[in-house]
Amino acid sequence: MPVIRSSEAVVHELHGARFISHASTRTGSKELCAWRGEIPAGTKAPAHTVDREEIFHLLDGELLITLDDRTHRITAGDTVIINPGTTLAVENPTAAVAVSWVTTSIGLEAVLADGTRIAPPWAR
Q: With CB atoms 3.0 to 4.6 Å apart as the test, which of 76, 90, 91, 118 could cross-link to 44 if both were Cys?
């Protein structure tokens, strides 16, 4: 069983947020990927539709999570199950960074409202 040290995690930035990739094909995972997300105060990420299930767990802070036009306020300790085909938007309306942990299947892709397809490198 591989051990991934925090110093080995790869940092990616997109739409003002940081994604710190821990488990991926690069680190030896065969089926799942996992990353820590840091969502700065005031960040409003664009809505995107995911093609795989995601488990989104909020470690610290507070966020507004919109799933198919229904907005939920989540706080540290809450978990959101995002099913394939769901349109997701994340907003941090607070003055503090929110920190999340996300797990999904390797190969996750998302489509933005304008049709742009994103294959995030932290999900490979």
A: 91
Say how many CA atoms lie within 13 Å of 99 toward its Cβ: 4
Cα separation of 91 and 46, whole Å?
9
- 93: closest CA among 124, 122, 62? 62
| 21 in Cβ contact with 122 (< 8 Å) | yes
What pTM was computed for the model? Answer: 0.92
Of 40, 36, 33, 35, whose CA–CA distance to 17 is shortest?
40
Tally the C-alpha atoms within 13 A of residue 8's C-alpha that lie toward its C-beta: 10
Q: Which two tokens stand for residue 18?
A: 């940081």
Query: Is it the case that residue 1 has pLDDT exceeding 60?
Result: no
pLDDT tens for residues 48-71?
999 999 999 999 999 999 999 999
CA–CA separation, 13 vs 29, rounded Å?
22
C-beta atoms surrounding 81 within 10 Å: 10
